[in-house]
Amino acid sequence: MALSDQFDVQEFVRRVLAEDLGSGGDITSAATIAADARFTAEMNCREPIVIAGLEIAVAFFRTLDKDVRIEKLVADGDSVPARSVIMRLEGNARAMLSAERSALNTLQHLSGIATLTRRYVEKIAGTGAILLDTRKTIPGLRLLEKYAARMGGAENHRMRLDDGLLIKDNHVAVAGGVANAVRAAKAANTGFQVQVEVDRVAQIEPALEAGADRLLLDNMPQPVLREAVELVAGRVPLEASGGVNLDTIRGIAETGVNYISVGRITQSAPSVDIGLDYSLQDLG
Hints:
Layout: H1 9-21, H2 27-32, E1 38-45, E2 49-50, H3 54-64, E3 69-72, E4 79-80, E5 85-92, H4 93-123, E6 130-132, H5 142-152, E7 165-167, H6 169-175, H7 178-187, E8 194-198, H8 204-209, E9 214-218, H9 222-232, E10 238-241, H10 249-253, E11 259-261, H11 264-267, E12 274-280
Parallel strand pairs: 6-11, 7-8, 8-9, 9-10, 10-11
Antiparallel strand pairs: 1-5, 1-12, 2-4, 3-5
Helix pairs in contact: 1-3, 1-4, 3-4, 4-5, 6-7
């Protein structure tokens, strides 16, 4: 479950540090702390969390101090209790302070996604349903946020518009109906399965007869989801979407759908509380 090869960690770190340091660098640390001062620090979580983005946080510190000593005490995907030490650091004080906010912002955000995702996964444990993420991500952070969702236990839906074929309601409207849209997609021979969104039971048989490989059941109440599951009877996988939250997801999973997609896990996850606590070493 490693971070995608398409994601350039060093380029991301460079851009984020440039955003924070500007052209003049950390002028406060330069004005108040001796160039050879050293810090030791512990990174702690102040609440129970699931870790995601640890190696990226490390990269921020190493970029500004190649000799920094780092001891990682947890790994991405780990569930850790409040007051746990995540890592210990020892290195140049100015560099550590300059990297701190970028490292924490990234780790707090990604661990927030992983933590919320894990809560959803635990809600549907034992049902057989699989949690999926969506493309509802912060622009420019999709690969990172979907990685964090995987660390929380979800599976990734399509990353981009070119790696999965999903016919939604607007496509259906322009094509003149579910069957027309599915037939057109099948005729395009993209090499991808054809998934189509349906929002009422009456659309299911026309979609299947036209060759749909998978159905997205959009905003259907749980009794309607059960009806759809019975009607399809295992002919294609079914994904439920819309109106999903921590209070509803268990009931949705128990209708018998195969997948449940939740935009909230990337779109609305709050950052978790992680801090860095310092102590000053002898100058050297």
